[in-house]
Amino acid sequence: MIEVTDLTKRYGNHVAVDHLSFRVEKGQIYGFLGPNGAGKSTTMNIITGYLAASGGTVTIDGHDVLQEPEEAKRRIGYLPELPPLYMDMTVEEYLRFAAELKKVSRAERREQVEQVMDMTQITDMKGRLIRNLSKGYRQRVGLAQALLGSPEVLILDEPSVGLDPKQIIEIRDLIRELGKNHTIILSSHILSEVSAVCDHIMIISHGKLVASDSPEGLQKLMSGEQELKLTVKGSYEALQEAVSGMAGIQRVEQQDGAPEGCCCVLIKTDREQDIREELFYLLAEKRLPILSMVLSERTLEDIFLELTGDTAVSEEPQAEQDKNDSQEEM
């Protein structure tokens, strides 16, 4: 559906997107992750035709964004981080205006506007001025705008930024519902949101793609060693002796906070080595009752930090000027 090949974007001497290549398959929800300054928004702006690339190609359903901009853009609905709303218009006026800009035929305009308002659950707000809407409803209006023209692809840049927890859940449910009929690329800093909604995750760092897989696949890929946290009735020395001959154990570390007469330990095991059942029977035989056992698994946050590090560069030192220049070129 979308093919990005060797994409590059430079701002002077700074490379925001560095020979980036990936493919987006039809009918999937893709999460696009990266720290601030990684190149996410720049990449999305290039895919939508808002920015010109310094090099490389982007094709949407076989149409090159640079060579066939109208055909490519017709297949995309875009919700930028700050929705392009006109505050003095009512919701319905704005959506009719957006439909006209998208060249929706006059005969279909009313029906499409009503349809997208229903899909985003803003029909009751159609007569209200956009300036009087909450942040959550403004996001919904922006999403309704992106849906006009029946695009096959939706590109959503931080759709839940600035929303409260209830609004985040509502937007998340809405995106999941839209994913049944659209291919979606979702950029977000809320990793739990990406993990809950997306079928596939791409992680970008310093303009390069560093990982691309399903959430489960990423966890398996980066699982490394596993950790078991145990509280056992008995001494640490007795526990150490009991497990000393078990296969798969890398090391045993004593932890603080054990109740009287007990010990708390962290057992690190080989990758994909599940010793819980064997450990249970062994310690029962040694009369070292297990009071608690918790398997600690790596989260998407752990994977994200490991792949991207904790440093971020400035993504767009000349972004505003470059956007203006790209608009003049187009």
Short overview:
The protein is α/β, with parallel strands linked by helices and 330 residues long. The chain is built from 12 helices and 14 strands.
Strand order of the largest sheet: 6-7-8-3-9-10
Residue-averaged pLDDT: 85
Distance between the termini: 24 Å
**Number of H- or I-type helical stretches:** 12
- The amount of beta strand, in percent, is 25-35%
Low-confidence stretches: 311-330
Radius of gyration: 25 Å
**Class inferred from helices and paired strands:** alpha/beta
Shape: elongated
The helix fraction, in percent, is 25-40%
Main features:
alpha/beta, four-stranded antiparallel sheet, disordered C terminus, 330 residues, six-stranded mixed sheet
Task: Tell me what the structure shows.
The protein has helices at 40-47, 69-73, 91-101, 106-119, 135-147, 165-178, 191-197, 215-221, 236-243, 276-285, 300-308, 319-329; strands at residues 2-11, 14-24, 29-33, 55-60, 63-64, 76-79, 153-157, 183-187, 200-205, 208-213, 226-233, 249-255, 262-269, 290-296. By secondary structure, it is α/β, with parallel strands linked by helices. A six-stranded mixed β-sheet has the order 6-7-8-3-9-10, with helices on both faces. A four-stranded antiparallel β-sheet has the order 2-1-4-5. Strand 12 and strand 13 (262-269) form a beta hairpin. Helix 3 crosses helix 4 and helix 4 (106-119) crosses helix 5 (135-147). The longest helix has 14 residues, at 106-119. The radius of gyration is 25 Å and the shape is elongated. Residues 311-330 have low confidence and may be disordered.
